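Predict both folds.
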Amino acid sequence: MLTIPELLIFSTFLLLLSVSIRVWRQRRQRKGLPLPPGPKGLPILGNLLDINVSKPWLSYTDWAKKHGDIVYLSILGQEFIIISSEELAHTLMDQRSGVYSERPYVSTSSGWISPPDCYPMGTDGGNVSFGLTAMIRLLNYLVADRKMYHVGFSKEACREYQSMQLQKVHQFLENLIASPTQFSAHSKTLAVAIIMAITYGYDPAPAEDPFVTKVERFINIFFRALSPEGAALTGAIPFLQHIPSWLPGGMYKRRAGECRGLAHDILNDPVEYVKVEMAGGTTRHSLVRDLWGRYATKDNTVTVEDEETIKAVAATVFLGGAESTDSVLTMFLLVMVLHPEVQIKAQEEIDRVVGNSRLPDFSDRERLPYVEAVYLETLRWQPIIPKALPHATSTSDIYNGYYIPKGVNVVANIWAMTHDETRFPDPMSYKPERHLSPTGELLQGITSPYFGFGRRKCPGLYVADQSIWASIVSSLATLRIRKRKDSTGCEIDVKPEFTAGLALSIRPKPFAYSIEPRSANAERLIRASNRGE
């Protein structure tokens, strides 16, 4: 048996050999065509030492300013194409979606991401596949899943959820009034309650729901495995996958084992809940119930394959919806604290359009352009997902004379798109007016940078859009959000800081704030709505 030093030497040799063979093959396949421009890298290491691993989108943006909207780089033999323009992303990922719709094989943490033809993060030794279907590589899986998504998440189908979403938002407001310092907990509860109701017809407990607790832990572990930049090191040096779990650097193995167990529970437990409810005749309307009814045979059973796909679709919807809604609402809270003048202007518009005898609803949306601009600017200013989940090419392609290799990681740099100075002057400033014409009309609607591109566009985008808008407009209509005061009556200054790491999303670090009802009438309307009056 090889010793650790011998394994290191052998792995280094394999790395050098692998990269050399890959470079030789690439040059043969390109037939003289150049790769897209990009930063010069070192032999073998590529651009490993140049990239900001914790905030790669910033490195990508800097390189785009120097090399253009399409940039090529490599990290330890892993190839990347970075797209930093919305127009180019539409051209490649939408118009050529047949080429740019796979997911890359990410070798992270000893089998966290499964082989190319499998669902990621296989559980129970591979007997049960955890279907975070955003990472399914092969398009034949994707087509079946997208058909299921359309059942519950088409634009028309999502309108049926609006009443329920408003009900959950009004409960969120009442929770905030009762305990305003617990915004984070209430925001998570709201996000989870909406998506669980839609997906499984399940109402989670107000606090410490066992299923929700598992999901939060799973998200914290799993999404760190989806960074191709961070995964390149482990994929390139197989030795790292053999470090014992008890050694420094072996933590990923312990986390992988925990994650597989959590994945099994998340995938199966809520669907079992729906099946029990269906058997008892008490099930509520939900995505899983509708899919089960559509794919069931005469004896009300579905094939093993269809059941696994239903589980995968449902789990993907829940994981994506819960995380994104909570993060955006926390960002909204921050900008309201930082920009009281924006809050006042939005509230004046709501008072003028809606009045003070009811709470706003979706019928008011088109008549509230400034509120819409606040929503759009909150998404743009600090996009919670600064770079989209990576795509991969299913075959080689040629764009503008550049050779795009087969299997390359294709990353849409959302940060660059939302901070394009030609489209958004002074992009680091929060200015809702940038989305309005001089006469106050909305210039643009929700576009794809916030929800992905092509066949991999977020299937739950309409649900997320409705949940976030309803939360923002309802909060503005009923709450006063501002800086907290200290014991001497002075406002506590807030400096916006954000988390960043190998996880896909960013969110504000904890900050001081104050929340109270705008008026006694606003509080009365909230309580009356929750009593069904």
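Second protein follows, with its predicted structure tokens after the sequence.
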Amino acid sequence: MKTGGQLIVECLEAQGVDRVFCVPGESYLAVLDALHDSDIETVVAKQEGGAAMMAEADGKLTGRPGICMVTRGPGATNAASGIHVAKQDSVPMIMFVGQIGRRMKGREAFQEVDYRQTFGDLAKWVEEIDHADRIPEVISHAYHVAMSGRPGPVVIALPEDMLRDVADVEPAPYIEVADPAPTEEAIAGVVDLLKEAKNPFLLLGGTRWTEEDVATVHKFAEDWGLPVGCSFRRQQLFDHTHPNYAGDVGLGINPALKSRLENSDLVILLGARFSENPSQGFSSFDIPVPKQNIVQIHSGAEELGRIYRANVSINATPGTFLNAMMKEATPEGRAVDPTVHEEYLAWTSNPPKIPGDVQMGEVMKHLIKVLPEDAIMANGAGNYAIWLHRFWPFRSFGSQLAPTSGSMGYGLPAAVAGGLRCPDKEVFCFAGDGCFQMTMQEFGTAMQYRSKVIVLLIDNGIYGTIRMHQEREYPSRISGTDILNPDFAALAKAYGAHAETVVKTEEFPAALERARNSKFAALIHIKIDPEAISPTATISGLRGK
């Protein structure tokens, strides 16, 4: 006979879980007690939002659900930001929430929340386990739901008295979900459209990719002479130095790339939903019937035809589609137009100068020069992220942790999870001063668990993205966008980390070298002029317009 708490942990062990992210709470003490005797590493975050974002990032890197545990009420609602990231980023994740005792339901007991109602729009499935003997069944189903179709988060509530009940049941076996695959007729339709197309374009996005799939998509693009773009914050899906690479289709898109995409006669959306940001506010394609021929391949059948009516819709994972296409003969002489990559290089090779003593363009050039190709780059949201997304050449799968949901504060907890999952790789967190302060307490988590993260904190003393929009819409009427910042280097040193402040461009290379040579996590506080509101805009320039 095992307690419910023991069964939860045994079921996770049966699924190969080696790490959970949590903030402890009295509502699930029985699970914490069972973790004491397991081989699962328990990473204690400083706030539930950070724990949830760590679990989401772990799911991004592994393709299996990242595991988060939080307590009832405020713990669960704090974690909602990470659940939202997992939803919009289509990442498998399971969050276990401690719950009030079963006999107390409906009385608005201490910290009582109806989780089905609260998370109904954010999670793929929300369940509450009232009987300990159903734990293996529910967790098995949770894994299937989180990983199948379009992946996403699952929330499971655990009444604290249920966790003390005992049952004589065994964990379910290791879960592998089905991979939807294309029919022969659908593949034939794609081949016909490709043969007829004069200006095709391949757009990559979504999840359920593997390293092997990424290698295959390079060969597929070469065989058919396809220009390739990556959807918003999915740059890791194609080598940016490849001659077929056209650039990222997201915010601040290269005008030449935007024109190429919109003037294509065939667009293949492989895994991509092509939602608001990559579609430039749903303006790139006519809705519901684009003027371009469209092929959409998605692992979630519900996403096919959701916005655009495609000529060919295929319910498949990227891998099953690519494997089927690689069996098809390709016409002779299909080569990509060399201007595809030339336009990308012209857009990214010469970062603009900005006001102030720190030139972020030179910082990016130095990073490109000295860092390994497989370095993991994490970021949250803000104009500072443009420096990374536009000017860093992503080369390999598993090198990007970025929220398509645009969540501030994501970069640091994601980097912590990345450092723990991939200790053999260098992990960097790009953060703005506003973004960092959303979750900066997780720097303590990095130090506690020896996640060797290097934070590049780009500080301009304002909420830069909001200020940019404010100056466009209400010039000179500053409201709510100034920030009084601490000495971030002193803060990192207080945790026992290596940290220093950079106020001139020429100080950065040596500071980076010292950070890379530090034993534990490190932080470089980079102070830039607030006038440099983005890589290509200034505050005075926006006001002048």
